[in-house]
C-alpha cells in the first residue's frame, strides 16, 4: 500500500462518521472556525473520532495479543499478523502500518477539537475537551508501548512522534519514551480535571482517565500512584464485578449493560457487522454457526492454567471443538512440541489405555485441591495430559476455540473491545502492592478475582501457601488468567523484565528460526516503524 506524504497525518478531510446516532456522512466541510463556533460541530467530530477507534481496535488487539503466550496459531498465513505472532518482524506489515496510520488519524482528529475549543467557556466544551485529551493520551500510550521499549528500561530510549496539533502536514520527529509518557500523564490529568458529565461506558469518562492512569503508573513503576488511582476507581462505587455465574458471558453483554466495564469501544449489532462476522477479531479464534476461520486457539500453557480448578468460570471463554463425545482423549505434548494423544477409558478416578497389546493406566498425582494431574508414560518420560472428548484437529492442533471476542448480544462475532474494566484495577493494585512489599494486600486483591472466578477457598492464596512462588509470580499469573485475550500479557511480561516462554505447540515454532523464548531485551519486542513513513518523514529513525 502506497502512502503519500500528505497522507501521513490524515485529518478530518477523510473522517467518516459511523456511530449509530449521528449522520453517516463525511464532515469534510467542517473547519476549525466551525468547530470553535459550534458545540454541535465539535461533538460531531468527537463522535467521528470514537467511530474511527472501531477500525483502530482491530490492529490494536492483534499487535498486543498475538505475541503473548495465551495463543497458538495452527497454520501459516499470508496475513502479516503471522510476523507479529512469531516475533519475525517485517518493516511494512499492513497490520503495523494500519495501526500507526489510524492511531495518528485519531490523534489529529482529537487535536482539531482541542485546538478549537476554549477551556472554561461552557460545561459542554470542557466535557468534549476532556474526552479528546483522554483519546489523545490513549493513542500515544498504545503507540509507545508497541514502538518503544518498556519505560522501566530507560526514559531516553526512542519512543514515537508526539503529535500535539491538528496540522496533518506537520511531522514531528521521534520523542523519547520518557517524553511520550510525560505527555500522556499531562493529558490524562487534564482530562480527569475537565470531565463533568456522566455518559455511558462507551464514552471516555473521569473514571476511565483514572483507570488508565492506574495502568500508566504501574507501567512507569510509580506504584503508590498506581494504587491511588485504582482506589479512586474502585471507591467510586460506579462499577461492580460481574457475578461468578455471569462471568463467562462477560463479552456477550452490550458495554452499557455491563457493570464491570469502565470504557469500551462500542460496536453496534448489524451496523458494525460487515461480511456477516468474517474478518472480525473473533473470527480467527472460533468458527461459530459456520462463521469464522477458527485457526488460532488457546495455548497449551493457558489451558493448563485455566483448567487447574474445574470451578474456574474463566474456562467458559474456551470451547473445545468436540467431534465424538463417545471417545475420550488424553492429550499431551512431546519434546518436539507436537500434540499427541491416547484414547482412554475412565474407571472412577483412573484412566486406562491400550498400548502394544497391553492395558496401561495413566499416572496420577494429587493436585492438592481435591483432584489429580494425570500423566502418560512415553519414551521421553512422563508427560502431563489433559482429558477431553475426541477433538477436531487442524494441522494436528486440537481446536480450543476462544470465545472472549465473540457473541455480543447474540451476534456471532460481534465484540466491543474493552479498554478498562474493574478487574484490572484490583490486579493493578495487587501488582503495585507486591512491588512495595505489601504482600498481604496484594494477595487479598488477587483472591477477590479468584473468588469471583469461582475458585474455592482451598485455591486462595496466603503468604504461607505460595510454595516456591513469589507474590509477584501469583499476581502476574492471575493477570494472565483474568486478562487473557484483552491485550495485556505481552506488555506485562516485558515491563517486568521477564522472559516470555512460548515452548508449546504452535506455528511460531515452525520454520528455520523458531522463537520459543523471548527475552525482555530482545529487539523483536518492539515493532519496526513502518518503512513507508521513514521514506516520507525526514528525521524519523528505525528501531533496531
What does this structure look like?
This protein is α+β, with helices and mostly antiparallel strands. Helix content is 36%, strand content 16%. The chain contains 15 helices and 19 strands. It has helices at 32-37, 39-65, 81-85, 94-116, 123-147, 177-194, 206-220, 223-235, 281-285, 300-306, 422-435, 439-452, 471-483, 489-495, 531-536; strands spanning 71-73, 158-161, 174-176, 261-264, 296-298, 318-320, 322-333, 339-347, 350-355, 358-361, 363-366, 372-378, 381-391, 393-394, 397-398, 400-402, 418-421, 500-501, 517-518. A seven-stranded antiparallel β-sheet has the order 10-9-8-7-13-12-11, with no helix packed on it. Strands 1-5 form a two-stranded antiparallel ribbon. Strand 9 (350-355) and strand 10 form a beta hairpin. Helix 6 packs antiparallel against helix 7 (206-220), helix 8 (223-235) packs antiparallel against helix 11 (422-435) and helix 12 runs parallel beside helix 13. The longest helix is centred in the first third of the chain and has 27 residues, at 39-65. The model is unreliable at 1-31 (pLDDT under 50).
The neighbouring-strand order within the major sheet is 10-9-8-7-13-12-11
**Envelope shape:** globular
User: Low-confidence stretches at least 5 residues in length (pLDDT < 50)?
Assistant: 1-31
Helical residue percent band: 25-40%
Rg from C-alpha positions? 24 Å
Topology, number of strands: 19
**Biggest sheet, in brief?**
7 strands, antiparallel
Number of helices: 15
Distance between termini? 23 Å
Mean pLDDT: 92
- The proportion of residues in beta strands is 15-25%
What structural class should be given to the helix and strand makeup?
A: alpha+beta
